Amino acid sequence: MKKALIRLVGLAILAGAGWGGYQFFKLLPERQEQIPTAKVQRGEVVIRAYSRGELRAVRSVTLNAPNLFGTVQTTRLAPMGSLAKEKDLIVEYDDSERKAALEEAQLNVQAVDEQIKKAKADLAIQQSQDQVTLLKTRYDVRRAELDVQRNPIISAIDGKKNVLTLEQSKRALLQLESDIQSRQDQADSQLAVLQEQRNRSLIDVQRELQRIAQTKSLAPITGLVAIRQNRAGYFNFGQQLPDIREGDTLQPGMPVADVLDLSELEVWAKVGELDRANLREGQEALLQLDAIPDKRFRGRIKAMSGTATSDVFSGDPSKKFDVIFSIDMRQLLTGLGMKPGDVERIMATAAANSKKNVVNTAASLSPGIAVAGGPGGPVAVAAVPSAAIQGGQGIIQMPGQAAGSQNDARDPAPRTPAPGPRPPAPVGMANPLEMMMRTRFSPFTEAERNNARLPLPPGEDSQVQVLLRPGLLADVEIQVEKLPDAIHIPAQAIFQKNGKHTVFVKVGGKFEPREVKLVKQSESTMVLSGGVQPGEIVALADPTVDKSARKGKPDKNSQGGGNGLGSLPGGK
């Protein structure tokens, strides 16, 4: 009996404990969630703008693959990351096809020259025969004239015969002169056709010389060599493109390499809308390179964009403004451990490069070369200083030859009306083919192209420039303004409610909305003129938004977002 009583008392105690726990559980709030908070602070506020940018060169030259009207294959390529000096070889292309085409074009010129010599020799022989025949016919006319003078002393029949003989001799002379003139015109036409063939062959020679000159791309400035990716093939989306290597076949006009001027660098970064309103050109900044984490360098805002852009492929799809920061190169180079003499030499290089008219050497033509026709079409080039292209017909006009004249280009004397031997060509006139061989088809001379050497690999060169590589990341800090004795809170604590700036202050166990007025704002800090007191707790997330909306579902009853950045202009 006693054991049963003890068991009943134990069961009663357990039942009472369970009932008490149930009642306590009912008193707990149905939804209990954690809202991040921050404390309102008062003191000196330094408004700073932060960004992360990329190191890049102020000046760079892009070398493109030339249009060789054939296979464009790289045979030699400067090492990636090497430091090339001016006139160093960057890219060399296979020129075997172009040299074979040049030899063929030169053989065509020589063949046409031999045909012109033969035609002129035949013309000289014909002119000699014509002169003999012409002299004999003139003699017959003169003899007939003398016979006519004897008519008074001879019979009338003989006199009439002499007159008829004289008329016949004159007619024969006129016919002979006309035949000589016709043969001369025919010979001139044949020579003109041969000369046009020679001019066409000369243009082919010059065009091949120009293409051969483009098979070597030299560095127009001293700088770092950056090899581009090979985009000539077909690759799937997201696949890593390989770099261009020796032996690759490229497409004409495709970027092959960049020469980056390391003597002057800048940092390209992006800032938000609120920070953009506080920045101005010329404002000082502090830059810290990831490669040199223990040192900070001075810089200034060089330029700012007027419109915001977004990059959908980056981790931050919000629209931001581009800002370019200049770097104090003397401080940067000194921080790398360079000697004062090396610093002065690099600064002199920067001053010299800034005065150069940097162009694309792979696609440039030297002054005096005129090209007509598009890719794959006919190209008319006139590189002989005294030559000119006439009417796009490929006719080379030589000195002393009138426009539209069909005379021999090597005989500037005009044709005389009377038939006879031509005057000799002036002595000392240079051969146009030899003049073309000496013509420059690129900004560099033939000796510079032949003596160009590849730069040393990065491992064999000075290691001082290893830390200065375009593409390195850098942190940028800009001190905008100092505000003494100011009330400030994080930017995430400001929300938009009914078109007004609102904060949620924790009073007891609840959050109370209060309207505030902003004095200064940035992407990270908000300075207030009142509405809150130092030490109060404010919410960093909107407590009035439904729990489902905080998890990512929109709440149609709320005008603000789930955080401060989403509710401010530029935070979207």
Description:
- With 572 residues, the protein is of the alpha+beta class.
- It has a domain of 118 residues.
- The chain contains ten helices and 23 strands.
- The protein has a six-stranded antiparallel barrel with strand order 2-11-14-13-12-17. A four-stranded antiparallel β-sheet has the order 3-10-8-5, with no helix packed on it. A four-stranded antiparallel β-sheet has the order 7-6-4-9, with no helix packed on it.
- A hairpin with a 7-residue loop joins β12 and β13.
- α2 runs antiparallel to α3 and α5 runs antiparallel to α6.
- The two termini are 77 Å apart.
Q: Which structural class do you get from the secondary structure elements?
A: alpha+beta
Strand order of the largest sheet: 2-11-14-13-12-17
**How many DSSP-defined strands?**
23
Instruction: Kindly report how far apart the N and C termini lie.
Output: 77 Å
Cα gyration radius (Å): 46 Å
Count of alpha and pi helical runs: 10
Q: Show unreliable segments.
A: 359-430, 553-572
User: Which shape, going by the Cα principal axes?
Assistant: rod-shaped
Instruction: Work out the helicity level.
Output: 25-40%
Task: Kindly estimate the percentage of residues that lie in beta strands according to DSSP.
Answer: 15-25%
Mean pLDDT metric: 76
The major sheet is characterized as:
6 strands, antiparallel, barrel
